[in-house]
Write a structure and sequence with these properties.
By secondary structure, the chain is α/β, with parallel strands linked by helices. The protein contains 6 helices and 5 strands; from the N terminus they run βαβααβαβαβα. α1 links the parallel β1 and β2. It is globular. The structure holds cytidine-5'-triphosphate.
Length: about 140
C-alpha cells in the first residue's frame, strides 16, 4: 500500500445533486489521506449561505456522500469556521476545489490553519459541471418538453 501524506483529511460541501465534480474532488482528497472526513452542509446552512434551498434534503445528501468509497466519515457542517471544525476533528489537511484558490475566504482560512500546522490543499476543479449548472440543465430540459 502506498503511504498517504496525511493521516486525517477534511473537506466540506453541499453535495446537492451529486455529480462528477463532487466525485473527483472526494477521490483526489482520499489520495492524500488515510481517513477522509466530509462535512455536509445542513439545509439551513445552505439557505443562509447560498440563499436558495437544496434540491436534495440533508439526510439524503449525507447518505449519498457516506456511500462513496473514498469517504471514511461524514459529519454535519453548519459553520464557515474551519478552526471550529479542526477543534473537533484534528485533521492534518483541509481540501477544497481550486475554484476557491485566492479568494479572501480561503486566504484567511489558509493563514489560520497553517498557524496550527494544518495544510490546505487545493484540488483541480472539474470544469463544466456544478449543482448550479445541473439546475439550469434540468430547467432547460423541462422548458423544451
Ligand atoms: N467541486 C469541484 N468541481 C466541480 C464542482 C465542485 O471540484 N465541478 C468541489 C468544490 O470546489 C468543493 C466541493 O466540490 O470543494 C463541494 O462543492 P459544492 O458547493 O457542494 O458543489 P457545486 O457544484 O460547486 O455547487 P454550486 O453550483 O451550488 O456552487
Amino acid at each position: 500500500m502506498i503511504e498517504k501524506k496525511y493521516k486525517i483529511g477534511f473537506t466540506v460541501g453541499t453535495f446537492d445533486l451529486f455529480h462528477i465534480g463532487h466525485l473527483n474532488l472526494l477521490r483526489q482528497a482520499k489520495e492524500y489521506c488515510s481517513h477522509l472526513i466530509v462535512g455536509v452542509h445542513t439545509d439551513e446552512w445552505v439557505m443562509y449561505c447560498k440563499k436558495r434551498p437544496t434540491v436534495i434534503p440533508f439526510q439524503e445528501r449525507t447518505d449519498i456522500v457516506a456511500a462513496i468509497r473514498y469517504v471514511d466519515e461524514v459529519v454535519k457542517n453548519e459553520s464557515y469556521s474551519k478552526l471550529e471544525a479542526w477543534g473537533k476533528y484534528h485533521f492534518d489537511a483541509a481540501f477544497i476545489g481550486d475554484d476557491w484558490k485566492g479568494t479572501d475566504t480561503w486566504n484567511k482560512i489558509e493563514t489560520q490553519l497553517r498557524e496550527i500546522g494544518c495544510d490546505v490543499i487545493y484540488l483541480p476543479y472539474t470544469q463544466g459541471i456544478s449543482t448550479t449548472e445541473l439546475r439550469k440543465r434540468i430547467q432547460d430540459a423541462s422548458v423544451q418538453k
